[in-house]
Design a protein that fits this description.
Length: 275
């Protein structure tokens, strides 16, 4: 399927910030020109073929010549990948593979990558398919590899700085629940869980709320994810927690265009907190 891109993208690619978001069953290509209001666009492609993931990525790249242009910034976003946080004081680049294996076990075929979250004194370790990493490195001009969660942590931290009380952020994506707790910008706790049932989401949320000794009358909980699912979850959680709401975004997000409203939180956060 051909990607419908803005007419100016190829002519003025150096002004555009674009992203390839790699998902288990496909990818999305999105971007915008910071100089032009309403310029955000996104194209999503799902794959049902029996071809390998690498073959699907290669076919997508070869079908769209504009991907070889030089952009202001080109992010390769790894979505739905396992990750772990390592204290910055303990991190050594040469030990990245070993640290990742300590959490997820050894594996012969994976490319371990990392990002520094300096404001939290943490390093985020994650992995992607080595052949896909190599192909993107060869095929793109100066790609910036990021994990889907890295910009979200930065965005959540910034939002919590202005809040007088502790805040829990909860993000739902496909079958994954991510939770992070902050106190005026300080990360208190974070973890993610594979969830298949609604009651599992409620269990993890309320268990961590109690574990972190949050106050049901004062502290805050913000939700993000698919609209109908988060709406139902909000209704359920308000029976236990007084201040539950949908996560909103600064006004500059809405000025980027209506298309951004159907994008996942990590792409919105990436547009606000460029890494």
């Amino acid at each position: 399927m051909a990607v419908l891109i803005p007419e100016l993208l190829s002519k003025e690619s150096e002004n555009y910030i674009v992203s390839i978001r790699l998902m288990p069953d496909g990818l999305s290509f999105s971007g915008y020109n910071p100089r032009i209001k309403g310029s955000f666009f996104i194209h999503e492609e799902k794959w049902n073929s029996h071809d390998s993931y690498l073959k699907q990525v290669e076919d997508f790249f070869f079908a769209h010549d504009f991907l070889s242009c030089t952009f202001k910034r080109f992010y390769v976003v790894q979505a739905h990948s396992d990750y772990t946080l390592v204290p910055l004081s303990l991190f050594l680049e040469k030990k990245a593979d070993e640290l990742y294996a300590f959490t997820f076990g050894p594996a012969a075929e994976r490319q371990v990558l990392y990002q520094s979250l300096k404001e939290d004194n943490q390093v985020l370790l994650y992995s992607m398919m080595p052949e896909v990493y190599t192909f993107c490195t060869r095929s793109l001009v100066n790609p910036v590899f990021v994990h889907t969660q890295s910009a979200v942590f930065t965005f959540w931290k910034q939002r919590s700085l202005a809040m007088a009380f502790q805040v829990m952020f909860l993000s739902l994506s496909t079958d994954r629940l991510t939770i992070a707790c902050y106190k005026q910008g300080q990360l208190l706790f974070t973890n993610y869980f594979q969830v298949t049932a609604y009651k599992e989401i409620l269990y993890y949320t309320l268990y961590i709320w109690k574990q972190q000794q949050f106050d049901v009358q004062k502290d805050l909980l913000y939700l993000s994810g698919e609209a109908q699912q988060t709406k139902e979850l909000k209704m359920a959680l308000t029976a236990y927690i007084q201040h539950v709401d949908m996560l909103d975004y600064p006004s500059e997000v809405y000025l980027m265009g209506t298309e951004i409203l159907r994008t996942p939180i990590d792409l919105i956060a990436l547009s606000l907190c460029e890494l």
